[in-house]
């Protein structure tokens, strides 16, 4: 019953005499709470016959970002709900690590459970303009969880700013391999989700904050002023960017002037001499 609440699905299924429903685990909180779903199933006397694992773009953050434990958790949820089937889509092309062990994981889960895993192949997806939703950087999670001034500056200037296209971008989806009838969705990569989640950027007071709590103006002057990266990490709108838009000049010019008080003084003198 997307995009309605989970309870609506049970209510309509009961009214229409359905034999059961498939639980789509997605952003709605009740769909993620198996105990709550079980109560709804009993209340409306409608069994859950299958569980759809949160493996779509709209559910990429549900139950974590790693698809491997999410599939196992879906099987355990199905067992708890006494559902016979878990529906999962095959790994995306960019989910190389997940894809390498996907078949073995499916076989292992079916061997230790009475739940059958149904793999739905009716989907084609790809990142656009160099975006890779499954992009990873070795050691990044450790660096973000254990920030230091030098380490955080290195992550921003060296790891993320030159590779901001891997942080977030557009994904094209289609049921056809030709992508002739496709749709676009914005998504964050594993890199982007980790960088948004952790408190690793230094604020004006020296404490480390999440990107969403800061603007580019709050970062130390040694950090590259990369608006694209700031937008990808959903940072606050900086005053410099707004001023640049009002003046019709690139933000980099204003950032450059902030480091050159001599140029600012010269411009002020010239403006002051105009009639």
Approximate helicity band = 40-55%
| H and E order | HEHHEHEHEEHHEEHEEHHHH
End-to-end distance, in Å? Answer: 68 Å
Strand order of the largest sheet: 1-2-3-4
Q: Based on DSSP secondary structure assignment, what is the total number of beta strands?
A: 9
* 3D shape: elongated
The tally of helices reads 12
Secondary structural class = alpha/beta
Percentage of residues in DSSP E strands = 5-15%
User: Average pLDDT across residues?
Assistant: 86
Low-confidence stretches: none
Spatial extent as radius of gyration: 24 Å
**Strand count, sense and closure of the main sheet?**
4 strands, parallel
Description:
A 4-stranded parallel β-sheet has the order 1-2-3-4. Strands 5-6-7 form a 3-stranded antiparallel β-sheet. Strands 8-9 form a two-stranded antiparallel sheet. It has 12 helices and 9 strands. With 275 residues, it is α/β, with parallel strands linked by helices. The chain starts with 5 loop residues before the first helix and ends with a helix. Strand 2 (48-52), helix 4 (67-81) and strand 3 (85-88) form a beta-alpha-beta unit. It is elongated, with a radius of gyration of 24 Å. It has helices spanning 6-16, 29-32, 34-44, 67-81, 96-111, 140-145, 149-160, 190-197, 227-232, 239-247, 251-258, 261-273; strands at 21-24, 48-52, 85-88, 116-119, 124-127, 168-174, 182-188, 201-202, 208-209.
């Amino acid at each position: 019953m997307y995009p309605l609440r989970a309870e609506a699905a049970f209510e309509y299924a009961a009214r229409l005499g359905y034999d059961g429903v498939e639980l789509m685990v997605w952003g709605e909180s009740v769909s993620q709470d198996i105990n709550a779903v079980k109560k709804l199933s009993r209340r409306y006397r409608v069994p859950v016959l299958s569980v759809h694992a949160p493996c779509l773009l709209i559910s990429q953050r549900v139950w974590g970002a790693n698809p491997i434990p999410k599939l196992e958790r879906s099987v355990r949820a199905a067992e708890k709900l006494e559902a016979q089937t878990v529906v999962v889509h095959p790994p995306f092309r960019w989910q190389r690590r997940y894809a390498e062990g996907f078949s073995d994981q499916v076989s292992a889960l079916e061997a230790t459970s009475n739940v059958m895993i149904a793999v739905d192949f009716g989907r084609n997806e790809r990142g656009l303009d160099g975006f890779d939703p499954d992009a990873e950087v070795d050691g990044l999670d450790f660096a973000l969880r254990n920030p230091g001034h030098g380490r955080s500056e290195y992550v921003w200037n060296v790891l993320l700013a030159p590779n901001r296209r891997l942080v977030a971008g557009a994904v094209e989806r289609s049921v056809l391999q030709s992508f002739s009838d496709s749709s676009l969705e914005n998504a964050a990569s594993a890199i982007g989700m980790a960088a948004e989640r952790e408190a690793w950027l230094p604020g004006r007071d020296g404490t480390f904050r999440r990107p969403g709590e800061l603007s580019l103006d709050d970062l130390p002057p040694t950090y590259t002023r990369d608006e694209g990266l700031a937008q990808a990490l959903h940072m606050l709108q900086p005053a410099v960017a707004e001023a640049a838009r009002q003046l019709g000049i690139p933000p980099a010019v204003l950032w450059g002037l902030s480091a050159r008080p001599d140029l600012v003084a010269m411009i002020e003198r010239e403006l002051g001499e105009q009639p």
